[in-house]
Amino acid sequence: MDFLKYFIFFLIVFTANCDGNVSIKTTIRSVDVQKTKVWGPGLSPERIVLPVRFFYIHAFDSHANPFNISVSNDFDVQIHGNSYTGKCRVQIEKLNRRDGIYIVRYKIYGTCWNVEIHIQYKEKHVANSPYKISGKVFSDKCRCPQKIEQWIRTMDCEASYEQIDYDLKPFNRVNFTEVLPKILKTFDRPGSISICNYIVKNNEIYRKCYGQHTGFKMFVDKLLNALVRLVEIPDLEFVVNLGDWPLVKKGGISRTSRPLPIFSWCGSDESFDIVMPTYDLMESGLEAMSRVSVDILSVQKSNTVWNEKQPIAFWRGRDARRERLHLIDIARKNPELFNVSLTNFFFFRDEEAKYGPKTSHISFFEFFNFKYQINIDGTVAAYRFPYLLAGNSVVFKQESPFYEHFYKQLSPMYHFIPIKRDLSDLVDKIYWAQNNDKAAYRISQQAQNFVNNNLTADKLLCYYVTLFQKWSERLINPIKIRGDLEKLFIEDDDVCDCTVNAETLRDEL
């Protein structure tokens, strides 16, 4: 009798339903390596060149049902190939989302060929593994740019972006030779505004910056450096705002004048700025697996599963806006609903005694121990928003006149839970989430899916290339290099022969 009892107990396994709750099933689920799904741009490394390539593995059982929890054994991923110095040097990282999906990302150093991607589970190949790559696989440091039309097709970029069409609508025909002096006259204020004038001609980069605080030019430099190695950017000229605040106010435009074209990381309902993906978002994609610790993919790693999270609202940040202080007031009146505090006082130092004490910073990954994440503007849009969406918690987003490049693609109550500008409905919305747990969980998953489909490094590069292509079509004057511009050095791989086919390379090289 005891043997039978323990035998039945052994057969019991715990699985998570689609709402994140735990149920008991009396059958053992095993991974079916043929029904398990593998997809992503990292499976075509000879076509899609990224600083970090990636793909997804979703475990399925023999009945073609997806796993919603981690599987009992890990997937083994190995990537083999040849290079000019011997074996291909590859760095691999596996991110377990604990929902049956694994993100595999890898970085290739140098040019490789005869590349094979092996994905195994219990020593059995998964899906179509091994994936044998025909052709050479380039490092992202190789300067082997494709024609722009070919690159857009290869990367499977969107045909159009609503935000780009909206931003460029006021600028049908632009003579930048005439526009630039007007921009400098209006915005060359060294103490308060920093801008850079960039020119790309024959896929070479030139710039001149204005202002006392131009350190953020490094992000634009790095972006353009990455792009010209990948794609033949059309000749163009533009000015980038290195600050957070949008510059071109709608209130200052008369019927007879036209707005000045300024590229910015943040837009607003009251400005004409042409919005680009933020420096933070793009930097995290270009520097993933190196010097940045938080990016769109890594933030999904080993998050606390939904039913293990604390059902309260979490927030940390500095005192960049009055509403953040108001959040402290609301939390103190409803301590059972909140874990919020300020980490620094800068704007309201005279109120630290009232709203302090300030608390220490914690790891961003620890945010996701809580079901509900609060997103409140800082000085402009809070650039943490895409990372909050990427985690598996639901985001309560404050109504705001500020936006990033992707906001028009989001829908309230589908990707996030909206809250009023003054936070007056925040408590009621948290109660709603607590009483509608399945709906809140579904919103969190839809947000995460949106991020993986729209905000990964390949999609951000698509956005930039499309923006620059459409902007170049509006420039009516020839692009000329002035003597006051600095030519930027483009970092290339030491050994990159873009013309040699892989078939002509000997294995022993």
What do you see in this structure?
This protein is α+β, with helices and mostly antiparallel strands and 509 residues long. The protein has three domains: 11-142, Immunoglobulin-like (Sandwich), CATH 2.60.40; 162-286 and 458-487, no CATH class; 298-455, 3-Layer(aba) Sandwich (Rossmann fold). The protein contains twelve helices and 24 strands. It has helices at 2-11, 148-154, 162-168, 176-187, 217-230, 279-286, 322-333, 352-355, 385-390, 426-435, 437-454, 457-472, and strands at 13-16, 22-25, 37-39, 53-58, 76-83, 86-87, 89-96, 101-109, 112-121, 124-125, 131-132, 195-201, 204-210, 236-241, 263-264, 267-268, 274-275, 310-318, 338-344, 370-375, 394-398, 402-403, 417-419, 486-487. Strands 5, 6, 9, 10 and 11 form a five-stranded antiparallel sheet that branches. The protein has a five-stranded parallel sheet with strand order 19-18-20-21-23. Strand 1 and strand 2 form a beta hairpin. Helix 5 (217-230) packs across helix 6 (279-286) and helix 6 (279-286) crosses helix 12 (457-472). The radius of gyration is 25 Å and the shape is flat.
Give a count of the beta strands, DSSP E runs of length 2 or more.
24
Q: What would CATH call the architecture of the largest domain?
A: 3-Layer(aba) Sandwich
Per DSSP, the total helix count is: 12
Chain-averaged pLDDT: 91
The CATH topology of the largest domain turns out to be: Rossmann fold
CATH class of the largest domain: Alpha Beta
Q: What's the shape?
A: flat
The N- to C-terminal Cα distance equals 66 Å
The amount of beta strand, in percent, is: 15-25%
Number of domains: 3
CATH homologous superfamily classification of the largest domain = Glycogen Phosphorylase B
